[in-house]
Write a structure and sequence with these properties.
Ribosomal Protein S5, domain 2; Alpha-Beta Plaits; binds cytidine-5'-monophosphate; 10 helices; alpha+beta; 29% strand; single chain
């Protein structure tokens, strides 16, 4: 029997890079937030192997997809004497900084655990998730969460107040590795005061009360003209709190009520503008399985 799951996207509401690590990665302090934009992942047990088909947005390479790699890693760690057929209906922009591939990988791990009854505790999926990618562990948790280390040391915090946000999708995919490689060396900065306060249990009444930034944003705006053009157009059209998510190229913002259609027309040709809202952890869990 096949099962379908929603695989939600994330935003990095805040992202600080605090240094380069010996393993080649960068040390991060980030605030992750799930949004209701999602892919659909269909999981159907098969006799053996891992098969993947896709529909919707085009993917660069199906053979190296993180969802199939997640399934292969799962069976290697918990041999089930079976295989799986996966179908990915892709709606989350690729190369957008919204974590679509990482979310798909975590969704597959959770689905296979549900289907095959191993491991006993979700926490045991953690090392497998970490090995797949820095953002994958966050998607085992969802909601509002802080990320440390490579972004894979995740601490869940009380969910932030629900917020409607718009996500602008420039007509370009941005390579995360290229953005990190182009980052200038910067002096170590203290942890942002708002992150410290969140870690201590502070619950701001709205996202507007949070001090948000993204240390990758200046590099992306300087090196990817398509993203810069969307950023400038959003600012000029009255959008508030415009920020890059992750390594981009997607930007999120708060738009004046009822202004979406007019603002969409002012963005560079080919830019998408998606209305979305933040999702709390319980809602993510409740909506994961498609009835
Ligand atoms: O872990 P993931 O495959 O998503 O990361 C993609 C690339 O982004 C890494 O190979 C690395 O070059 C860069 N990266 C980094 N520091 C991080 C996360 C990613 O330098 N914390």
């Amino acid at each position: 029997m096949r099962s379908r799951y929603r695989s939600f996207a994330k935003l990095n509401l805040h992202l600080q890079v605090v240094g380069r690590r010996r393993d080649g990665y960068h040390e991060l302090r980030t605030l992750f937030q799930t949004i209701d934009l999602h892919d659909l992942v269909t999981v159907e047990p098969a006799v053996r192997g891992v098969e993947l088909t896709t529909s919707g947005l085009e993917l660069p390479s199906a053979s190296d997809n993180l969802a199939s790699r997640a399934a292969a890693a799962y069976f290697e760690r918990w041999p089930a004497g079976a295989g799986v057929r996966l179908h990915l209906e892709k709606r989350i922009p690729v190369g957008g900084g919204l974590g679509g591939g990482s979310s798909n990988a975590a969704t597959v791990l959770l689905a296979l655990r549900e289907r095959f009854g191993a491991p006993a505790a979700v926490a045991e999926l953690w090392p497998v998730a970490r090995a797949l990618g820095a953002d994958v562990p966050y998607f085992l948790v969802g909601g509002s969460a802080l990320g440390f280390g490579r972004g894979d040391e995740v601490v869940a915090i009380p969910d932030l107040a629900e917020q409607e946000l718009h996500v602008a999708v420039p007509a370009v995919a941005v390579s995360t590795a290229a953005v990190f490689a182009a980052l200038p060396e910067s002096p170590e900065a203290p942890l942002a005061a708002s992150l410290l306060a969140l870690a201590a249990g502070w619950a701001p009444p709205s996202l507007a009360g949070l001090e948000l930034w993204n240390d990758l944003q200046p590099t992306v705006l300087a090196s990817v003209p398509e993203v810069n053009a969307v950023y400038t157009a959003l600012l000029r059209s009255g959008a508030v709190g415009v920020r890059l998510s992750g390594s981009g190229g997607c930007l999120f913002a708060r738009l004046p009520a009822g202004a979406q259609a007019e603002i969409a027309q002012r963005l560079p040709a080919g830019t998408g503008l998606l209305a979305t809202r933040t999702l709390g952890r319980l809602e993510v869990a409740a909506r994961r399985t498609v009835a």
